[in-house]
Amino acid sequence: MEKFAFLQDQLDALKAADLLRTLRCIRSAAGPTVMVDGDSRARVNFCSNNYLNIASDPHVIQAVSQAARRWGYGASASRLICGTMDPHVELEERFAAFAGKEASVMFPSGWMANEAVLRTIPQKGDLVLMDKADHASIIDAAKAGEATFRTWRRDNPDRLRKLLAGGDYRRRFIVTESVFSMDGDTADLELLVELKNAYGAILIVDEAHSAGCMGPTGAGFAEERGLPAQVDIMIAPLGKAFGAAGAMVAAGRTVADYLINRARAFIYTTAPAPVNCAAVMAALDIIRSEPQRRRMLADNAAYLRNRLADSGLDIANSCSHIIPVVIGSSKDALAASEALYEKGFLLPAIRPPTVPAGSARLRISVQSRHTQEQMDALVDTLQDVVGH
Ligand SMILES: Cc1ncc(COP(=O)(O)O)c(C=O)c1O
Fold it and tell me: Are 180 and 135 spatial neighbours (Cβ–Cβ below 8 Å)?
C-alpha cells in the first residue's frame, strides 16, 4: 500500500468539503494587475498585501541592486555567529526610530517574530490574552509557550475585563492585531490601553496590516490613534506595505536584548539577506517621503467600502483597506471567486480554518494605485456574481 495514502485520504476529504488549497503561479511583478500562469490576459489583483505599491518600486529595485553588489545575496550565518552585517544594524536603528522605540530586532518573517515574542516573553505563571481573530502565528506561538492563554472576542470586552481581573498570575499580556487581517476592522486600542493600565498588563500589537499604511508618519495604527508609547511591543511584518519580507519587533532595549538571547526563532536561523534590509530601508524612505500613498490608499479604501455597502454586499465591520465580502459556504465562495476570475479579477476565496466555519469570504485588499475604474468594475461584477 502507498505509504502516504493516509495523507491522500485527508486531502481527498478536504477536496470533498471544498477546502482543498492549491498554488497559483503569478508570472509578473506585484502590482494592481498581474499575469497568472496559463492565462494570456492580465487580471486586476485585489488580493495582494502590496498596499502602497512598494514591492516593485524603482527605488526599491535600485537599492536592492546596489546592496547586492556591495553585500552579495545570502548572509551566510545566523545573526549571532557572523550573519549580522551593516544593513541589519542600520535597519534596526532606523526602524526603532520610525516606531518611536528604543530598539528593534529583525526576524526572517512575521510568523517567526510572533513565535519569538509570544513563546519567549510571556513565561510560566503568566497569562496571555488574545483576540479570537488574532493571526495563526500569534495563537500557535502562545499555545506552544509556557504561559496560560485565553481568548476574548472584541465584541465582548467584558470577558477581557474579567480575565484580566481574575486568577493569580505573575504578569498579564494583551495581544491584538491592529487591523484584523480577515475582517478589516480595527482593535479598540483606546480600551485596550485603558485596561492595560488598569491591570498593569503588557500590550503587544501586531501592526502587520497597518505599519506603513496608517499614522501621520506611517508608523501604524497606534500612531494614528496617538498611542504608540502605550504599545509595549510592536510587531511589524515587512511582507505587506513594506513590499519586502521579514518582520521587525520594536520595543525597549531589554526586550530586544532578551529576544536576541532567548528567542529560538532568532538564534537558530540564518540572518535575513542583507539585500532584504536594503529593500526595507528604501521602503522606509518612500513611506516617509510619500505620504500621498497613504492618502490614496485610504481614499481608495473608503470609496470601495462605500460602493460595496451601497450595493447591499456584506462587508462585515471593515473600516480599512481590507474589505471582506462575506459569502458563507466555502462552495459558494469558491464559485464566486472563479466567476470573478473569468471576468478579469484575482480574488481567491478565503475559507476555514483561516476564517470561522460558515463565514467563507472574498477578502479584498486595496492598493494605493488601484484606479476608480478598476474598483467600479469590481463592484459591478461582484453584484452580478454574488447577486442580490
Ligand atoms: C497579522 C499577521 N501577523 C503575522 C503575519 C505573518 O507575517 P509573515 O507573512 O511575514 O510571516 C501575517 C500574515 O502573513 C499577518 O496577517
Answer: no
